[in-house]
Design goal:
Distance between the termini of chain A: 82 Å
Structural class of chain A: alpha+beta
Number of helices of chain B: 15
Order of helices and strands of chain A: HEHHEEHEHEEHEHH
Order of helices and strands of chain B: HHHEEEHHHHHHHHHEHHHE
Number of strands of chain B: 5
Oligomer: heterodimer
Largest sheet of chain B: 3 strands, antiparallel
Shape of chain A: elongated
Number of helices of chain A: 8
CATH topology of one domain in chain A: Alpha-Beta Plaits
Helix content of chain A: 25-40%
Radius of gyration of chain B: 19 Å
Structural class of chain B: mainly alpha
Strand order of the largest sheet of chain A: 1-3-2
Number of domains of chain B: 2
Shape of chain B: globular
Distance between the termini of chain B: 29 Å
Radius of gyration of chain A: 30 Å
CATH class of one domain in chain A: Alpha Beta
Strand content of chain A: 5-15%
Number of strands of chain A: 7
Chain lengths: ~280, ~290
């Protein structure tokens, strides 16, 4: 194949025309193949591994991959060397920024230099309060090894959390093993968790029981039509289905009627007097 | 070819060296290498020595903490992928676009792009080894590929070409860490050496095609100013990465300036010509066959 120089001739012969068309077809075909390959590769490589977290303010992954031009300015401006630029061979798309919580977590700089550095808004410049960032969501994935679940007072993930008492709280539970102690269970609240990864970084176990995952993996979702009865009741200021007939409980007929309320308040159990 | 290999095909520029001395006969080549090296060094001064003159990489950077620079080709891909451009990137791309419109689009290829070193090395080795032939894709392939990189961005909604673009991989690898980049660089080198002479830069690279489109109206051109003294030694054709651009200016009767967008302004023809036919010229009004 050659790029037929048809311009030099005043009337291109059919031979030259054929060569020209062949050339065009070959070029188009080859280019199609190359681009198709690139496109397929792009789709296959788009799956971000669960350990890799995007910087604060990163758009949703699909939008991020359209916006990020792989310049590494966010990486350069990260003062804690948290962010890395993926190179070919990494599981993350080459040239895009990411961090691994267990290696170096995000220190949640108040001025968010990485977002400021981004020239394309792949890191959304509307994010000005680092506490509102959503890099991922912490999840206490392993209840079998978490020391607090074993009844100990480790509390490290709770203590290091930059949004302590909001993003992670300690919830008191009865310890059925000793039957006389409490367990204080670290509990993540998605509303406040930024996904900075400090909890995962500082988990004292050799393999952390709490991990920051991409929100799509860490968070469940209720069906849209679900309503929580107790919330609806509160909104309405009373039961939505009217006063219910109280059925006697055999053997407890003379138990004193307790004040109605939520199951959590007052005495719990079958004779709490709770009504729907 | 039945004729024995002419010495000029293996060592082009012999005459220029004997007439003007090695240094003068390599002036533009050395300046170019200096420019390519200096640009990489500027980017590495920050991470290596903490001197932040320029930050980022060739995709987008920040000069002296104030001037944004963005590759317009990348920004266009991003727009095709459906992302509304942000003001910093727009300003940066505007500056880069204006610069290359002024100095010649493919000046990027010859004076900035690090892949040029790889393909120049392949071309040199090919000449020295006397390798002939090969299967060269049609020169238009790069324009088809250019169009298809935008289609791929549109269809996949991401910068599809940038997953495999050897040019951005190489410059990013040099500035941020290499990873497996060497594999793709080696592939390009071997392709140019064994399969297609000047195959990557001259026939395939869509980035080069994009910059070629920018270079059509550029006033800075190489011109065959003294074309009457040409003695047909063919040295310029041998060293030129885009030999098709020389003929109209050297052998035609129209403008002496090389107006073709494919010209990379590498100045190698200026270097190797024993007759001093070529020089860089500033030609604003010269029209020529393209």
């Amino acid at each position: 194949m050659s790029n037929a120089d048809t311009r030099g001739q005043t009337a291109p012969s059919s031979e030259a025309r054929r060569r020209f068309l062949n050339g065009i077809a070959g070029a188009a075909g080859g280019a199609c193949l190359l681009a198709l390959g690139a496109g397929l590769y792009a789709r296959q490589a788009a799956a971000l591994p669960a350990e890799a977290l995007r910087p604060p303010g990163a758009l949703a992954e699909a939008d991020f991959l359209a916006a990020c031009i792989r310049c590494g300015l966010c990486v350069r401006d990260c003062p804690y060397n948290t962010l890395k630029l993926a190179s070919p061979g990494d599981a993350v798309v080459g040239g895009t920024p990411y961090f691994t919580a267990r290696t170096v977590p995000c220190e949640m700089c108040e001025d968010i230099p990485c977002v400021k550095a981004c020239p394309t808004n792949a890191l959304d410049h509307q994010l000005t309060d680092i506490n509102k960032s959503k890099m991922g969501l912490a999840a206490l994935v392993d209840h079998e090894t978490c020391l607090n679940f074993l009844g100990l007072r480790c509390d490290v993930c709770y203590r290091v959390c930059p949004v302590i008492d909001k993003a992670i709280t300690l919830e008191k539970q009865h310890n059925p093993r000793s039957d006389r102690h409490a367990m204080l269970l670290p509990t993540v609240h998605s509303e406040h968790c930024t996904g900075c990864g400090k909890c995962e970084k500082s988990c004292v176990l050799p393999i952390p029981a709490i991990k920051v995952l991409p929100t799509r993996l860490a968070q469940g979702k209720l069906p849209d039509h679900y309503r929580k009865g107790w919330e609806e009741k509160e909104k309405h200021g009373g039961s939505l289905i009217g006063e219910q007939v109280r059925m006697p409980v055999r053997g407890l007929e003379d138990a004193p009627p307790a004040a109605s309320g939520s199951p959590a308040s007052g005495s719990a159990g079958i004779n709490s007097g709770w009504k729907p | 070819m039945t004729t024995p290999v002419k010495p000029g095909l293996v060592h082009p520029g012999r005459e220029a060296v004997t007439r003007r001395g090695w240094l003068v006969a390599h002036k533009w080549l050395l300046l170019r290498r200096l420019s390519q090296g200096a640009i990489l060094l500027l980017f590495l001064l920050g991470p290596w020595f903490g001197v932040w003159i320029i930050k980022g990489n060739l995709a987008s950077s920040l000069l002296l903490d104030t001037v944004p620079l963005t590759d317009p080709y990348l920004l266009l891909q991003s727009i095709a992928a459906g992302h509304a451009p942000y003001k910093t990137a727009l300003i940066g791309a505007g500056i880069v676009l204006a610069f290359y419109l002024l100095v010649g689009g493919r000046l990027f290829c010859a004076w900035v792009c690090p892949m040029n070193l790889v393909t120049d090395a392949a071309a040199l080795l090919r000449r020295r080894l006397g390798l002939k032939g090969g299967r060269v894709p049609p020169a238009e392939t790069r324009y088809w590929l250019l169009a298809l990189t935008f289609v791929a961005a549109l269809v996949t909604g991401s910068l599809a070409w940038e997953w495999v673009n050897p040019v951005s991989m190489l410059q990013r690898g040099l500035i941020f860490g290499f990873g497996l980049t060497w594999g793709i660089v080696l592939a390009i080198f071997l392709y140019d050496l064994l399969v297609a002479p000047r195959g990557w830069c001259g026939h395939l690279c869509p980035m080069g095609a994009f910059y070629a489109l920018l270079g059509r109206l550029t006033p800075i051109r190489v011109a065959a100013e003294r074309r009457e003294s040409c003695n047909d030694c063919m040295d310029c054709f041998t060293v030129c990465p885009e030999p098709q651009v020389i003929r109209p200016a050297l052998k035609g009767s129209g403008s002496r300036a090389i107006a073709h967008g494919d010209c990379t302004r590498c100045g190698r023809c200026v270097d190797v010509c024993g007759q001093n036919v070529f020089n860089f010229s500033l030609s604003i009004n010269r029209r020529s066959v393209s």
